Amino acid sequence: MKAKITLKDIARELEVSISTVSKALKNSEEISRDTKEKVQAFAKLYNYKPNNIAISLKNKRTKNIGVVIPDIVHHFFTTVIRGIEKYANARGYNVIVCLSEESFDKEVINMEMLANGSIDGFIMSLSSETQQKGDYNHLKEVTEQGIPVVLFDRITQEVECDKVIIDDELGAYQATKKFIDQGKKRIALITTDDYLSVSKARTKGYRKALEESSLGIDESMMLKMPSMEMDEEAIKTFLDSKNPDAVLCVNEIFAVCGMRWVQKKGLRIPEDIAFIGFTDGVLSKYANPSLTVVAQHGEKMGEESAKMLIDKVESEAEVETYQTKILEPTLVVRDSIAH
Amino acid sequence: MKAKITLKDIARELEVSISTVSKALKNSEEISRDTKEKVQAFAKLYNYKPNNIAISLKNKRTKNIGVVIPDIVHHFFTTVIRGIEKYANARGYNVIVCLSEESFDKEVINMEMLANGSIDGFIMSLSSETQQKGDYNHLKEVTEQGIPVVLFDRITQEVECDKVIIDDELGAYQATKKFIDQGKKRIALITTDDYLSVSKARTKGYRKALEESSLGIDESMMLKMPSMEMDEEAIKTFLDSKNPDAVLCVNEIFAVCGMRWVQKKGLRIPEDIAFIGFTDGVLSKYANPSLTVVAQHGEKMGEESAKMLIDKVESEAEVETYQTKILEPTLVVRDSIAH
DNA sequence: TATTAACACGAAAACGGTTTCGTAGTATTT
DNA sequence: AAATACTACGAAACCGTTTTCGTGTTAATA
After folding, report:
1. A-chain residues within 8 Å CB-CB of B99?
2. Between A339 and A27, where is the model more confident?
3. Quick check: is A121 in a domain?
4. Which member of A78, A242, B270, B336 lies 3.0 to 4.6 Å from B275 by CB, making a disulfide possible if both were Cys?
């Protein structure tokens, strides 16, 4: 086992000072050609690499960014992380991932853990519990300490920071409009409770499209699932009783379950009943029939978030101005609707 | 913006030395009751939290573990990360995630980036390119430096370190045996090229089961996909020409594609043709019919890996003894086979 | 009363770098 | 020859902790 070599080691071997070594390795003008060559050669030979921790301590920059998300076993978040990681890596940053598992307490603990010097900034999506409680003090504390935060997807207006979202309302609006244009009359919505900012926005878009049409809104055509846990029975009962000819679901899973059930009953998709979901994951792609979805462009979202964060981290100016970036969703048309 | 308070700040305010503050906060016996109370009260008031970076530099322990995986948009890896994160967090560690994206170079770069003090150890799964090249010098260098490494799932025998795998051979063997017991005669295998350690093991299990049976092996019943990219045509052609009555696939996607195709041709699943895949992901669960799979217990695998790594990191002893933990796979029976 | 022990605290080194500033020695200018 | 300007390097501070060791003060002991 050969331990890592330090500046001090090089200095001792070469009988120069630590400062000289440091400067020589940085190709400083201050150091003579001879000395530089000697030091650099030695460093290369012994594979010297500066210690990140020491540099972090000195610079007060860790080149780490903390990502706090509710769940990682979830296609959307996973693509966001990929976007973050790719972008951050390209700019020399590492990504520390923490999972809140939809718990307020875990979210708080994770942030506190990271806020003590481990990271230069946060990228996060709120846990459902946090959104329910409406308690954002942990976020406010962090921003007050001058640590930049970027919120994505599940955001709140109560914290002043940069934000990246997709226009969920628009996505739902377009999807619903698509149904209307295709002559669907009984358009249902399967969503979760309103505490999730995204569900709320999607419901709004759905309502808006119906209001604008001649169809109008029928409250009973909306099924609100109390939690994000799957409850197949609720969906089946709902579909059986309301008999929709089109269903908009706020995720893939609700949609796939719905499709499976109506197929079992002998209905044809999309002729008798059409489906559109949210999130362009594997499920939609390989479902039978393949599912039309409102794609959220998670990777793009991750990139944007990382860009906003790193720009802020690296900007000297203490700009107290925040922006919200709204990405446009895309309808990915597959076989679960007519086309 | 209120900046973080340091020991020095407290010392100045309270007119004591830094050492006294440090000791007082640690409840040292050396410090008088009075002083301790004073310091602790002040620290609490100003919400003092020690700087992680400084502590890391001092202790030469970061409490970070580096996870390097080929891809994060992949259910299996995602569950492993969750397992790692949960376990590591419980023991006070953070997880830095790096993606190799199946590239050898990225794997090397990521490891180098982290190996300079950012982490206490690695948990990783090899990129396909690395397994193809068979070049493991980056791993060897790291272990030689005394940084513990735990390899999971996609491992190699050429590096001496702890390893966690599932018994892929056994999983494939059991799945194939299941087909045989159910009277299937033309049992096909859809796999990827052998360079992936897991594909190799699964193929071996498949062969073993057939060899032990009266059916024997027909090389042409094995389809080797050259890459992990989906090639639907190859699968269709293969299924059409070989006409199997059972198909074992090394992942979910191959299986779901296969199912979709044979259903389109009017075959019944599982009566005419049965399917078993690997990886218990969302796809299997919500496929139509739902897919029987060999579950890999990713979360368990993550936990085990994290446990092995942290135990090693925290053990003072420089034990040069490594273990390989083999987890048992489970057959999750769903509607794609008779039951 | 002189010695020792206990107590409570501070100085300083250490972790591994970066960076400012001072300076000895040489080269250039007047 | 004296004044000035470079060149090339080292000392030391600093980032924020922890920890060892030394020491002044008081209390207990001989």
Report:
1. 82, 85-86, 89
2. A27
3. yes
4. B336
